[in-house]
Amino acid sequence: MKDLYSIIKSPVITEKATLHNEVNNQIFLEVDPRANKIEIKAAVEKLLNKKVLAVQTLNRKGKKKRSGRFVGRRPNTKRAIVRLYPGEKFDLFEGA
Q1: Which residues contact 90 (CB under 8 A, 6 or more apart)?
Q2: 4-84 domain in CATH 3.10.100.10?
Q3: What whole-number distance in Å separates Cα of residue 26 and Cα of residue 10?
Q4: Are 85 and 51 contacting, i.e. CB atoms less than 8 angstroms apart?
Q5: What is the pLDDT of residues 78-91, one digit of tens each?
Q6: Residue 13 CB coordination number (10 Å)
Q7: Which among 80, 87, 96 is positioned nearest to 12, based on CA atoms?
Q8: Using CA atoms, how far apart are residues 12 and 9, in angstroms rounded to an integer?
Q9: Cβ–Cβ < 8 Å for 58, 26
Q10: Can you give the pTM of this predicted structure?
């Protein structure tokens, strides 16, 4: 993966992610499935200007969903839990 902008897809905004952001100083991100921890760390440090302490990743399988008699699937996704250094803060809603 060369392009930093293709590694990080979007932040994950859930109650659990918000709680971890406030208490544990962690960010939940949806990332490209082919990205590894080193690339994710470099992308966060470069694009968000934050110092990263650790990166944890998890692969999520897509669920089967029905629409009448047809069965489809949601796509597989990869998430990264990025822990920032104690002095760093990431406030997603600071402009609002």
Answers
A1: 21, 25, 27, 48, 50, 84
A2: no
A3: 15
A4: yes
A5: 999 999 999 888 87
A6: 11
A7: 80
A8: 10
A9: no
A10: 0.85
